[in-house]
Design goal:
- Pfam families: HTH_IclR (PF09339), IclR_C (PF01614).
- This protein has about 250 residues and is an alpha+beta fold.
- The chain folds into two domains: about 10-75, Arc Repressor Mutant, subunit A; about 75-245, GAF domain (Beta-Lactamase), CATH 3.30.450.40.
- It has nine helices and eight strands.
- The protein has helices spanning about 10-20, 30-40, 40-55, 70-75, 80-100, 140-150, 155-160, 175-185, 230-245; strands at about 60, 65-70, 105-110, 115-120, 135, 190-195, 200-210, 210-220.
- It has a six-stranded antiparallel sheet, with helices on both faces. The chain has a two-stranded antiparallel ribbon with strand order 1-2.
- Helix 1 crosses helix 2 (about 30-40), helix 2 crosses helix 3 (about 40-55) and helix 6 crosses helix 8.
- The chain is globular.
- The N and C termini lie far apart (about 45 Å).
- The relative contact order is 0.11.
Length: about 250
């Protein structure tokens, strides 16, 4: 169950369990599915879901299924660090996209996953699985490897202990990934080759606020052997610009 057992839970806990029932693989849920995933009685789910819809936390689609409401996203954007980061980074992401026409990502670490705060892509960009607000494995993405390389040791140990293959090219050997993370810290860049999705390669660099890595900036292309120098230069310029702007009072 996504929300865990709600037995003896308060009304607030049950409402939050209903919201937590949604995830990357469950974007649309019926009332019965919501109740099952939140582990609360159907009658209780019916009442709470109606209140969540009225507030805007959930919305009901034409076929009767429920989806996450726009108001939750609006509230989430008010989180101080992320809201400021997205706002500051936006012009730099647009400049980078204009110069490369590659899919551009801005991500931060959320536990043991990469949370995508922003994404720009065009009709000719390489297809990717990421969306704004999605969470992807740290070990299988370029931005994720940057964030993992600078994560606390306990986070690195947790990820290294559970390396799941996403494609045949995903790095699932702890020793190899550890060496890659050392290289990321040494070279200030990370690369992937079809590790998250076939036909997509990525190049990513850290975004620093002072000495602290607060985010990762990456591009996704079909082949890193072409224009790697130009892509890396564009990424580094954009990452430094974001970091300087984000540091200003």
């Amino acid at each position: 169950m996504a929300g865990g057992s709600a037995s003896g839970a308060s009304v607030t806990q049950r409402a939050l369990a209903l919201v937590a029932a949604f995830d990357e693989d469950h974007r649309r849920l019926t009332l019965t599915e919501l109740a099952e995933r939140a582990d609360i009685p159907l009658s209780t789910a019916h009442r709470l879901v109606a209140e969540l819809v009225a507030w805007g936390a959930l919305a009901r689609s034409g076929d009767g299924a429920y989806v996450v409401g726009r108001r939750l996203w609006d509230v989430g954007l008010l989180a101080p660090v992320r809201a400021g980061l997205v706002e500051v980074a936006s012009p730099f992401l647009h400049d980078l996209f204009g110069a490369t026409r590659a899919t551009v990502h801005l991500a931060v670490r959320e536990g043991t996953e990469a949370l995508y705060l922003d994404r720009l892509r065009g009709h000719s960009s390489v297809p990717v699985v990421s969306t704004v607000g999605s969470r992807l494995p740290l070990h299988a993405t370029g931005v994720g490897k940057v964030l993992l390389a600078h994560a606390p040791r306990e986070v690195q140990r947790a990820v290294l202990a559970d390396l799941r293959g996403v494609t045949p090219y995903t790095v699932t050997q702890p020793g190899l990934l550890s060496r890659q993370l050392e290289a990321v810290r040494r070279e200030d860049l990370a690369t992937t080759r079809e590790e998250m999705s076939l036909g997509a390669c990525s190049l990513a660099v850290p975004v620093r606020r002072g000495e602290t890595v607060v985010a990762a900036l990456g591009v996704v292309v079909a082949d890193l052997r072409r224009d790697r120098t130009r892509l890396l230069s564009g990424l580094q310029v954009a990452a430094r610009g974001i970091g300087r702007s984000f540091t200003r009072p």
